[in-house]
Amino acid sequence: MDKQKFALDRANFILLAVGMAVVIIGFLLMTGLGSTEEMFEPDIFSVRRIKVAPVVCFIGFVFMIYAILRKPKAKFGKEIEK
Description:
Elements: H1 10-30, H2 47-69
Helix pairs in contact: 1-2
């Protein structure tokens, strides 16, 4: 099968993997101890968990959208047929 018939090329998949890694990092930044009925954990309101982590996740999702919408380059100067 001709490689030019695929909608996404290798670079698109690499960009998708990078975007997914950024999203996973954002979710890991959100993790931490939770509050219980016996003990209140003030860390649940930290800047890292309520501001930084959601922004990192959002950037990862936007990066993944770009990776999907990115048009593969035509090889040898040929146009990609629809």
